[in-house]
């Protein structure tokens, strides 16, 4: 695939960084935006593996770093779920301005939940695929033992995730608590694919079942047996990519299907 680094501002004027992956020798038949998890970044191995496999199926994939993470500007402690949604909208606007508006949104974990919230803002989006995503943004807080009590008493809390230190602020906690994902799903005018590992120890499979129950058709739920939260095995990442590529062709419309033939 061909990969280039791109930069563009979000709605706060902060410069975001993304990687645009394109098929090696042809124009993409459709574009996708890929959003990572709570404290991840666009260059996680499984994200690159999925993007590479999707380019081989004719997609252009924009892998985004959220504000304050990866190579994007800003501070993590100033970000929240709402800013993540705003960053997705900025990425989609970049594609619409410089290439073609995205027809597909892909998100992992909290990035998937952000995609559900962002999708109704774009008429171009025909399909949304989310991987091991929580049914509510506030689920993140349940993974950070004692952080809410510390934030309530001190206004902030320092946590370590994956060997790195992050500052959790009151505004982030309040924003996570304020979100109502069921409303976003009810407003989703696009096909939804839920991919979730039954053995996920970070986001229980029940979350996928709740999202599936709340969504309207067309919707699909695919279990990822043996996979973990971060799709550590390459075979799992490639399976996810194959499922997304095959499933989404039913919803992308005549223009994209003709272009990929």
Describe what is shown at a glance.
Helices cover about 40% and strands about 25% of the residues.
What attributes characterize this protein structure?
two-stranded antiparallel ribbon; alpha/beta; Rossmann fold; 261 residues
Describe this protein's structure.
This protein has helices spanning 45-56, 81-98, 110-118, 139-142, 147-154, 170-178, 181-186, 205-214, 234-248, 254-260; strands at residues 2-9, 15-22, 30-35, 59-64, 104-108, 127-131, 156-161, 164-169, 191-196, 219-223. By secondary structure, it is α/β, with parallel strands linked by helices. It has 2 domains: 2-137 and 180-260, Rossmann fold (3-Layer(aba) Sandwich); 138-178, no CATH class. Strand 9 (191-196), helix 8 (205-214) and strand 10 form a beta-alpha-beta unit. Helix 1 (45-56) crosses helix 9 (234-248). The protein is globular, with a radius of gyration of 17 Å. It starts with a strand and ends with a helix.
**SSE string, helices as H and strands as E:** EEEHEHEHEHHEEHHEHEHH
- Give unreliable regions as ranges: 256-261
Percent strand = 15-25%
Per CATH, the class of the largest domain reads Alpha Beta
Structural class: alpha/beta
Number of domains: 2
Helical residue percent? 25-40%
State the CATH superfamily name of the largest domain.
Alpha/Beta hydrolase fold, catalytic domain
What is Rg? 17 Å
Distance between the termini: 19 Å
Query: What is the CATH topology assignment of the largest domain?
Result: Rossmann fold
Number of strands: 10
Biggest β-sheet: strands ordered side by side in the sheet: 1-2-4-3-5-6-9-10
